[in-house]
Write a structure and sequence with these properties.
The complex is a heterodimer of chains A (484) and B (782). By secondary structure, chain A is α/β, with parallel strands linked by helices. Chain A contains 13 helices and 17 strands. Chain A has two domains: 333 residues, Alkaline Phosphatase, subunit A, CATH 3.40.720.10; 57 residues. Helices cover 30% and strands 16% of the residues of chain A. In chain A, strands 1, 4, 5, 6, 7, 8, 11, 12 and 15 form a nine-stranded mixed sheet that branches. Chain A has a two-stranded antiparallel ribbon with strand order 2-3. In chain A, strands 9-10 form a two-stranded antiparallel ribbon. The longest helix of chain A is centred in the middle third of the chain and has 23 residues. The radius of gyration of chain A is 24 Å and the shape is globular. Chain A starts with a helix and ends in a 15-residue tail after the last strand. In chain A, 61% of the residues are buried. Among the domains of chain B are: 127 residues; 171 residues, no CATH class; 44 residues, no CATH class; 104 residues, no CATH class. In chain B, 45% of the residues lie in helices and 3% in strands. Chain B has 34 helices and six strands. Classes of the chains: A alpha/beta (484), B mainly alpha (782). At the A-B interface, α2, α6, β6, α8 and α9 of A face α14, α26, α28, α29 and α32 of B.
Amino acid sequence: MNLSQLANVTRRHFLSRTGMGIGALALASLEGKTARAGITVDATRPLAERQPQFAPRATRVIYIHLTGSPPNLDLYDYKPELVKRNGQNCPDQFLAGKIFAFTSGVPKLLGTPRKFAQHGKSGTWLSDAMPNFHAPDIVDEMCFIHSMYTEQFNHAPAELLIYTGSPRPGRPSMGSWVTYGLGTENQNLPGFVVLISSGVQPNGGANSYGSGFLPSVFQGVQCRSKGDPVLFVSDPPGMDRTLRRRSLDTLRQMNELQEHELGHPETLTRIAQYELAFRMQTSVPEVMDIGKESKETLATYGAEPGASSFANNCLLARRLVEQGVRFVQLFDWGWDYHGTHVNEGLTDGLTKKMAATDKPISALIRDLRQRGLLDETLIVCGGEFGRTPFREGRTAASAVLGRDHYPDCFTMWLAGGGVKPGFNYGQTDDLGFGVIENKVHVHDLQATIMHLVGFNHERLTYRFQGRDYRLTDIHGNVVREILA
Amino acid sequence: MLQRVSWICWTLLVVGTGAAIVHGEPPVDFIREVRPILSNKCFTCHGPDASKRKAGLRLDDAESGNRELESGATAVVPGDVDASALVERITSSDPDSVMPPPTFNKPVTAAEVALLKRWIKENGHFAGHWSYTRPVRATPPEPPAEWKAWPRNEIDRFALASMLSHNLHPSPEADRAALARRVFLDITGLPPTIEEVEAFVSSKDPQAYEKLVDELLHRPAYGEHWARLWLDLARYADSAGYADDPPRTIWAYRDWVIRAFNANMPFDEFTIEQIAGDLLPNPTENQLIATAFHRNTLTNNEGGTQDEEFRNVALVDRVNTTMAVWMGTTMACAQCHNHKYDPISQKEYFQFFAVLNNTEDADLQNESPVLPIYTVEQRQQVVKTQVAAAAWQSLLALRPNLDEQINAVVAAEPVLNFVANPSTTVPIYRERAEPRETRIQHRGNYLDKGEVVQAGLPAAFRVAVGQGPINRLALARWLVNKDNPLTARVLVNRYWDTLFGRGIVSTSEEFGSQGELPTHPELLDWLAVDFMESGWDMRALVRKIVTSATYRQSSQVVGDAAKIDPDNRWLARGPRVRLSAEMIRDQALAVSGLLSGKMYGPPVHPPQPSLGLSAAFGSSTDWETSKGEDRYRRAIYTTWRRSNPYPSMATFDAPNRETCTLRRNATNTPLQSLVTLNDPVFIEAAQALARLGLQHAGSTDERIAYMLKRCLLRDARPEERRSLVQLYNDSHAQFAAQPAPAKEMATIPLGDLPAAMNVADAASMTVVANVLLNLDETFLKR
C-alpha cells in the first residue's frame, strides 16, 4: 500500500476495519499535505503519544464540571445595581420573546443575598460563599470569563453542547477529541479519565464523556475511589496476581501459536492489549489509592481514603495528571440552584455546597503549583449555562432563594497551562441579563482549550458520514486575550 | 447524458474517448480519481448549492464544467490544459487568485495538480455522482481457464476478476470445521455445537453446505442475530434518553423485528410497514407495531423543556435516519443550508420533514400515542364473553370470522380495557387529522421560521413519486421503488459489510460524493439488482453471499498477502472479523452451556456491577439481576439504557443507541481484555465450562481438549494441550494448598459445585476455561 492509496483509506475505516491492527503499519501524517487535517494514529497503539500541531501551552487538562450550573451572580459576577433593584418587577425588555424553563409571567429581580468583596492583586470581586478562593495565591491564579453564553437552557442539551459541540447526542466529547489528537503519555493508564461525585451521572449520561463516532478507545473511562477503581480491573475472587500472570503467560503462548498458524497480524495487537491490561491491573489501583498520600495532603483537600467525594476526586485528578493521564473530567452533581430545596438555596445551601468545593479546588491548584505541574496543566471550571437575575417562577414565594436556567451569560474560570493568571475577561450589563463586552460562546471556549493543547480547532477533524467533523462544529474563535 | 450511463459503460467511454494516453500509464479514471478531489476541494463553492456558487461555476454535474462562464473563461477545455482556467487557478501563486482560496485550508497538492492536468489532456469530461444512477445488472466476467472451476456463483466471477487484476488469486476453501463455525456465527450469531460441526464435517452429501445454510437461515436464532443490525439502525433502546433517561416500553417493536426476519418478510414490505404501517388499509396490529421504528427517537422529559422543541429534534432525527438507513445519504447538512456536496437543497430537506411532520406524537412523557397489546387469550375472552355494548355487538356481527373479530378488538381498545390490562404497550405512529404547517427553519432553529413548504421528496434521485398525496406511505414506496438508485445498493452493501467486515463501499454509511468509491462496482450493482428482482428477499441475499466461493475461502494469511492487501479489499481470502459485543457474550454463554433459548418479551437484567450512581434527575443506574434463565438470555434481550449502556457490551463497541448507528467500530483495547478476564459474567461462563470439562470422560488432557473444542470447534494442537495442561497443573498445585481461594475461584458467582466435584479440580479448570474464553481465535470469526 503506497501513500496515495493510504490517503484513500478513511481513517475511520482504517481504525475500525483492521481491528486496529496492521502490524507496524502506521497511518502517515497527512497534515498540510492533503485536504484532511489529519493526525498520525498508529493503528496498533491508538493511544500512543502524538505531537500536537504546534507547541502546546498545556499538556494535560482537568475539567471540573459543576453539574446543574452554579449561580454566577452569587459567586463571581457582582451586580450592585441588581441588589438595589431587588424585588422589583423584571423589566419587559428582558422577557419579551424569551422562554424560560420554569418561569412565566413577570418575575421579581433578585439581588444576590451574598456579600461581595474584591480579592487578590487582581481585585477580583468574589462572594463570601467561597472563602478559600479569596486567598491571593488562588484568586490571582484564576482567569475568569464573565461573558460566556450558550443557546441551550435545558441541562442535557446544554451540557452536550459544552462537551461535544452539539446539543444532540452522538458526537465525541472534548476529552475524546484531545486524546484522539494527542494520545496519552502513560500507556498503563486510560488516557481520558472520568470522576463522578455526589452520586449522580452528568446530564448527558455517558455521552458527556463518550467518543461518539470516534473509535471507542478514545472514550472517557470512569474511575472510582470506592469499589473496583475501573470496571473489571480486579481479578476474580480466588485468583491472585501470580496466578493471573501465570494464566496470561499461557494465553500469550496460545495466541502466539495461533498467529503463527493463521498469520493474522491483528493477533499480535490482541496479545499487546492483554499485557497492557495486566499492567493496568496494577497501575490503576495504585494511582486510585489516595491512602498513599500524606495526612497533611489529605487534610488540605479534605479527602478521605475509601470514601467517594468531590475532594477525593480533586486529589485523584492531581494523581492522575501527575502519572501522565491526558484529560481528567470531573462531574459534581448538585449545582442546580432553583431554590426548590434548601440545599439548592442561594444562602445556606450554596454556603454548604461551596465549602465542599472551594477547599479541594484550592488545594488542587496549590498542589499542582508546588509540584511544578500547574504551568502545563489547564484547569477549567464551570456549569452548562447561567442562572437568571430574577427569582425562578416556582419558588418565587418561597423562603429559599433560587434562580432559573439562563443561557445568555455566565461565568467560567480557567487556571494554569497557558492562561493569564489573575485576569477578568468580558462583562455583563448592570443587571446581569446579557454580555456587553467580549462575548465568548461555548464554541469559543472549546476552540481556546484546543488551542492551549496545541491544536487548531478547525484542523483537528475526523471524517464521518462524508463530513470532516470537529469539536467546534462550524464555529469557534480562540479567545486570544486570555492567553498568557 | 453521462450521468445516466452505468459504471462500466462510463469506464468504456473514458477509455474510448481517451485521446492522449500517456505511455505506460492507464488513463485517469474520472470517477475514481478526479471527482473525489473536486468534491473535497471545490464543491463547497462550485457544487450543487446554487446559493453559494461562485462565478457561476459548477463542477459536480456532467456538463457545466466544460461550459464557457460569464467571465469568458472555461474551467476545463477537454484536451487543452493551457486553455483550462481550472489549471491556471489551482496553480496560481497569487493568493488572491489561487483556488481553493488559502483561507479554505484545503490546498490542492502537486500530485493532484498533475493528475488533473493529465485528466484534462486525456479527456476532460465530467460526470455526476456514480450512486445517483440506477444500478444495472452486468454480465459477470468469464473466469480465465486456469480458474474455470473456482467460481460457485456470480459473486465469485466478479471477485475473481478483480483479485487477478491485483495480482492476487483465490485462497483454498476453509477447512470444513472453520467454515461451519463461520457460517453458524454469521447466520445465527451463535457457534455450532461439537456435534453439529461433526455432522457437517463427516457428511458425504455434496450439497451438505448449502443444506446447512438453508437450515440455519430457518432457525429462530437467525432473526435474533440479524435483528441486532437493524436495531442499531432503528436506535432501539429501552429508555427514552436525555438526562433522566426513564424506562420506555417498546420491546414489542424489537420482537416485531426478530419475527419479521424469521418470517423472511421482503425488504420492501419491511420498509413500508415501519415507515407507514398505520397508513395501510386496515392495518393489522403488527403493522402498527412496526411503526415504532421512528418512535425510537429520544423524548426529553427534563423539567422545563419545550415539548415542541424536542418534537422538532425528533423529527430531524427521523429525516436524517430515514435517508441514512435506506439511501446511505447524509441529509443532516441540508437542515441548515443547501448541501455542499450532494444535490439536496434546504428546501428539499424541509419538504421531506413535512412528510413526517403530521404524526400525533409530540415529545410527551407518556409517549402517546401508544398501542396497547393484548394476548390472544385476553382477546378471545372479549370475543367470547361479548362483554361489550351494542356498538361492539354490531361490529362483531359484521365479522363472523373469529380472526377478524380478534383483529377488530385492536380497534375496540376501550372494551378490552374492561377485561384486562394490556400485556404491554408500544409507542406507534398515528397521523393527525389536521396536517401541521411546515416551514423552513433557519440555522436549524425551530423558532426561526421561513417560507412554508409542501411535502415533497428530493429530486436528484430521479425517482417518481406515485399518485396521490405525498405522505409517509408515498415516502416508503419511494424508498423501495425499483428506480431508487440507492436503497438496494445500500442494503446489500451493509450485508456485505456485516459478513466480510468491510463493505464493497467501505463507507457503508455514506454513498454520497464524500463517501468512498466501491471496490467492486459491478458486483455491488449485480447484487443490488438481483436483490430487487428476488422480491427483496433478505434470506436469499445472505444465502447468495455465504454460498459463494469467495466467502468460503480460508482466512489464513499466506505470504505477502497482509502487505499487499491488508484490508482484504480484493477478497483473495476469507473474512476475518472480530465478533460483535453481543456475539462475544452469547458465545461465552453458549459454549459453557448456560445460554437460555427463551425468545421475546420484556428486556432482562443480566449481572452488571453496582456503581451506586443515578442518572441526572433519574433513577439508579444499578439494577437487580434477573432470576432464573433470564440471567442467561441472548444479549439482544438485555435492557438497553441509553445513558448507561451495559458496560461489557459498550466496551466491545456496542453503541448507546441515542442516534442511528450505521456502522460499528471494532476496536481492540485493554479494557476489553479486562471484561473477558474478570467480568463475573465471563467468570461464571468459565466456571460452567470447567464443570462441563470435568464431567467429560477422560484424562485431564482429554477434558481440556474437549473444552477447547467447545470454544473453537477444532481439535487442540499438541502444543496447545501441553500448554493448557501445564497451566492446569500449576493452578492445581496452588489451589490444593489454598482451599479458600480455590472455592471462590470455582463457585463465585456460579454457586455450589456438583456433589462429586473436587474444589481444586474445578478451580484449576476454571482458570483454563478463562484462558479459552480469552483466546484471540475465540473472539474471531475466521
